[in-house]
Amino acid sequence: MTKPNKALHSTVGLILFLFAAFTATVFAQQPTASDGKTAASQQTYELKIEFNRRVRMRDGTELSADVYRPKAPGRFPVILNRTPYTKTGGNLLSLAQYFVPHGYVVIAMDVRGRGDSDGRFEPYRNDGQDGYDVIEWCAAQEW
Questions:
Q1: What is the predicted pLDDT for the residue at 25?
Q2: Contact at 8 Å (CB) between 130 and 109?
Q3: Of the candidates 1, 9, 57, 126, which lies 20 to 30 Å from 24 by C-alpha distance?
């Protein structure tokens, strides 16, 4: 039986620690306005969800995206999450429930050939072009 690699354990431990610290910091922060008031005095937005939006790639393949956005007119920054592990997994709804009221659009997308997206899944093969096409699609939206 081989001994565990101490360097690997240390690296994994450090990554987990940094991730936990980052997550705690993001969710514990109270953003402030330029006048020093807390986020409670800033505008907040109601959450609107659009499930299974079809996004056409340059070759005609359609990818599936769930769009969590403010229910208000205007343009907002986008947080894009493309995954081969089903867009509904993890804690994406929790992230959307935090970021959308603060004025962000959160998009969860199944990569080509996975989940509800069309096409054939070939790891990393289409990620560059598809990622580019999705960012262009996001920029063209009214939000």
A1: 46
A2: no
A3: 9
Contact present, 85 and 116 (Cβ < 8 Å) = no
Parallel/antiparallel/unpaired status of strands 47-56 and 78-83: unpaired
CATH assignment of the domain containing 114:
3.40.50.1820
Domains: count for the chain: 1
92 domain residue, yes or no = yes
Q: Which amino acid is at 36?
A: G
Question: What does the pLDDT look like over 34-77, one tens digit per residue?
Answer: 555 554 458 899 999 999 999 999 999 999 999 999 999 999 99
Print the domain residue range for 101. Answer: 39-140
Give how far Cα 53 sits from Cα of 30, 38, 99, Å: 32, 35, 20
Helix (H) or strand (E) holding 20: helix 6-28
Task: Using a pLDDT cut of 90, give the percent of the chain over it.
Answer: 64
Cα distance between residue 42 and residue 67, in whole Å: 23
- 23's enclosing H/E stretch is helix 6-28
